[in-house]
Amino acid sequence: MCPLPALFALTVSLGLMALAPQAHAEDAATQVQPAYAAAYAPEAAFESCRAGTASKAVECALKACADASGYPEDCYILAACEGGGWAGVMGVMVTEVHFTTVTCGAPSREALLAELKARCAGHLPYMQECWVAELIPLHEAETEAVEISWTAESVVQP
Predict the structure, then answer these.
(1) For residues 149 and 131, is the Cβ–Cβ distance under 8 A?
(2) Is the peptide bond before 72 cis (omega within 30 degrees of 0)?
(3) CA 8 to chain centre
(4) Which tops the pLDDT comparison, 58 or 29?
(5) pLDDT in tens, 131-148
(6) Are 72 and 93 in contact (CB under 8 A)?
(7) Is-contact 121 156, C-beta < 8 A?
(8) Which residues, at least 6 apart from 130, have a Cβ–Cβ distance to it below 8 Å?
(9) Under the phi-then-psi rule, with left for phi > 0, alpha for psi from -120 to 50, and beta for the rest, what region is 141?
(10) pLDDT tens figures, 102-113
(11) Contact 47, 74 (CB under 8 A)
């Protein structure tokens, strides 16, 4: 047996083995989208996107909002963030008006919930109810759908 072809086969095989973990790491990295943006068209659409950068997430959210509402000029960005942390989506009922608010950049799930509750309390005395719909850990691929709500009475309790 000629040693050169055997050496070549060994080199190719080691090279392919070295690429396998890297390819797996790249697949995992593409699943985690560390940037988030949410776009809103009043009474027409709420759309959000995750992407590799905040600018790509903003572009995606605005396009999705325009597609959903049919009125691109009515869409605006509620929030955009990147680099990790947590984002959250909350609906707010103030007297007879309902709107959606989004926050980004909380360091933990607990901090995010505390911030959302404080935002809810900030709408007193007109706030009737706030409900958290989604918690988004920007360091993980999956979002967390939740059903947490506060009434005017419960938001002022410690």
Answers:
(1) yes
(2) no
(3) 47
(4) 58
(5) 999 999 998 888 898 999
(6) no
(7) yes
(8) 90, 91, 92, 93, 116, 117, 119, 120, 123, 149, 150, 155
(9) alpha
(10) 999 999 999 999
(11) no
